[in-house]
Batch of 2 targets.
Target 1
Amino acid sequence: MSDVTIQPYLNFGGRTEEAIEFYKSALGAEVLMLMRFKDSPEPMPSLPEGYDEKIMHASFRIGDSEIMVSDGCGDQETLGGFSLSVGVKTEEEADKYFAALSEGGEVKMPLEKTFWSPKFGMVADKFGVDWMVSVESDWKPE
């Protein structure tokens, strides 16, 4: 296998700063890089008015994973068709992260025991990002 990295890149249509603060609080995200549109080395004449302070690009780390984010270029973003999965070691961690991600969001499947995990649940956070939270287990399909 080659040295390929795949990272999620989420566009929040003008709400990236709010999303970053939410993920810092909910999941302990650590901001690695943040650049606003006003800091671009090249002018961007097609930006909507007032977008200078919006986030052109940022990245943050949660555990061993890096997620990249942006406000886009003024277009309204609709997220869908994917989920981000949070794997934790304990049921207490699952409860903590699930509750935090659920705040202002929608629980799609409450945390419960499944055949592959002692606790698994699904939630859409307040930004419309779908999350799966599960306690890691040794279960493997036969």
Note: The chain is about 15% helix and 35% strand.
Target 2
Amino acid sequence: MAFYQHESAIVDDGAQIGPDSRVWHFVHVCGGAQIGKGVSLGQNVFVGNKVTIGDHCKIQNNVSVYDNVHLEEGVFCGPSMVFTNVYNPRSLIERKDQYLDTLIKKGATLGANCTVVCGVTIGEFAFVGAGAVINKDVPAYALMVGVPAKQIGWMSEYGEQLDLPLEGNGEVVCSHTGERYQLTGKLLSKKT
């Protein structure tokens, strides 16, 4: 086995877990899950069948990654954050055929206790603050806080807030890395 599995963890037959990944205490990974290399699944994490988790993701304690949730490379899921997969659940009505896809793009951070309502896409290197509720798509590099979440700024790939307005035209350099970012209208991109 090329990954570490704690003796209390359950990994169902068929699950694919990449090398150097760590599956900690009381984790349950369902058989259809596809998990990349260098992933950390903290204590009491659940991973559904129709889930993909990219390389180097960190999923902290008490997170359930339900069917139709897809994490690209380097996503951080803070402790006890929540994903959903049905928009209008009812115990007495079966809605498994109504699961909505949720996509979290490369490098995004989902803060502790935030909630991501199904059917949204969170852009590359976006940063969702602790306790926020995401109910619509989030642009790349956006800093989102509140209930429901609103954008209050922009974040660098390094994870520091950038000194830019929410919209307009401008350019800024990350003080930690020297990388340059370009704001055009309501979209931020990293210059190469």
Note: The two ends are 39 Å apart (CA to CA).
